[in-house]
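Record passed on underneath.
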Amino acid sequence: MATSPPHFSIARAPDAARLAHVEGAELHHMRTVLRMAVDARVSLLDPAGVEHQGTIERYERDRAVVRIESSSSQSPSPARTRIILAAAIVKGPRMDFVVEKAAELGASELWPIVSARGLVRSPGTDRLARWGRLAIAAAKQSHSPAAMEVRSPIGIDDMIRGVPPRTLAVICASGGEPLAGVIRRLRPRAILIAVGPEGDFDDDERAKAANAGFVAAGLGPNRLRSETAALAAVSIAAGLLHNAQGSSEDAETEEKD
């Protein structure tokens, strides 16, 4: 039985000449760990979630050049449920952890939030690029059809203005109705979850969110670190929305029958 070729993520789609470049940690895995030879077949996942099949044409000092032979006919259709994690930026590797695990859990977008009590005001272009690479790698690891989109950092006002139509907007808050209960009660098809920094959103930020219609939702009785709260919220939302989507599809099938 034929086995599928190894999968790697790439930071950019193939160029006009149908050549793709594997770099960084993915190159190390391909060349040093797997010791793949020139002409070996590989599968590449680009940031749009399109899968490309090709062969290694050559190795250069800091990249592998892959000639693409075929690609998926189109980008995968977007998920029926959209989960946006609007998370306050936390320091150092903890934010890397949020990016990676939120992508694995099923978040479709990450909006890094610059908040009044947050300790990070601007992560810089290098960290943003790293978060994008982590999201792509997480999509490959979890066999997700598309990589989580990592937006540029925004403030609370832009977050509120940017809530898409027909999207349930939730702000995590101690003492709020449990998030699972909010989702079961309102049954959204798309959700934005705002999670504050270690010191939480301040009074002005919470008031702005409440005035804009955000629902305050709790994550249990324990006080959670910011990154724990963000991942717990995504996990709860992804599980419930996935189940709701499956139930909806089953109902549609029964009606057709």
